[in-house]
Amino acid sequence: MQFRVMLVIMVVLCGALASAGCTFSKTSPAAPTPGSGTPAGTQTVVAGSGLTTVPTDVIPSYNMVTVDVGEKDYLGKIPVIFQGGIGMIHVKKIDAKLTRADGTVQTATIGIRKGDQIELDGTRGEGPLRGPVDRIEVWVTMDNGQTYKTNDELREYRTRG
User: Fold this and answer.
1) How many other CB atoms are found less than 10 A from the CB of residue 44?
2) DSSP letter string, the chain
3) Nearest in space to 137 (alpha carbons), one of 50, 59, 54, 71
4) Hey, where are the domains in the chain?
5) What global pTM score does this model have?
6) What is the pLDDT along the chain (161 residues), one digit of tens a residue?
7) 25, 36, 75, 78: which has the highest count of C-beta atoms within 10 A?
8) How far is the C-alpha of 156 from the C-alpha of 50, rounded, in Å?
């Protein structure tokens, strides 16, 4: 009788181990190291603009923050807004860089409080055409010295839809 109980327990344990082993992969991807420049997206190119974007950095979840780049308005103004996040207490500096279609560059520093924003002076559209494309890049520097590129986006002149 004791043999039968032990046999049943062994079969149940083997079944549990076999099913648990099937739910995990034998190799798992390595976690990105902070500030390593791990790509999070793909390169973007707008035909005829000459400007391209590159993948941004992956910020560790414990330092996650959000910076939004708004639409370019009819005057060419592009808002950049710090939305905060779980890691906002570690943010020491937020820098934004606008590269206009004509090649000129504007840089600015955004405040580190949630809701702080700046407006960058992008290029304006001409006539019925879509107008030029501008590139906006944002870097967030943390209190440990790590800097992450959080945004790299192209903004076209807004058209009426």
Assistant:
1) 14
2) -HHHHHHHHHHHHHHHHHHHHTTS-SS-PPPPPTTS----S--EE-TTT--EE-PPPPPPGGG--EEEE--B-TT-EEEEEEEE-TTGGGEEEEEEEEE-TTS-EEEEEE-SSTT-EEEEE-PPP-TTS---EEEEEEEEEETTS-EEEEEEEEEEBP---
3) 54
4) 44-156
5) 0.67
6) 687 777 777 777 666 656 655 444 333 333 333 444 434 444 444 444 567 888 899 999 999 999 999 999 888 899 999 999 999 999 999 999 999 988 899 999 999 999 999 999 998 866 444 568 899 999 999 999 999 999 999 998 766 65
7) 78
8) 13
pLDDT, residue 126, reads 60
The residue type found at 145 is G
> CATH for 44-156, among 2.40.70.10, 2.40.30.160, 2.60.40.10, 2.60.40.2890?
2.60.40.10
Structure tokens at 39: 């790509």
Instruction: Retrieve residue 123's tokens.
Output: 């290029």
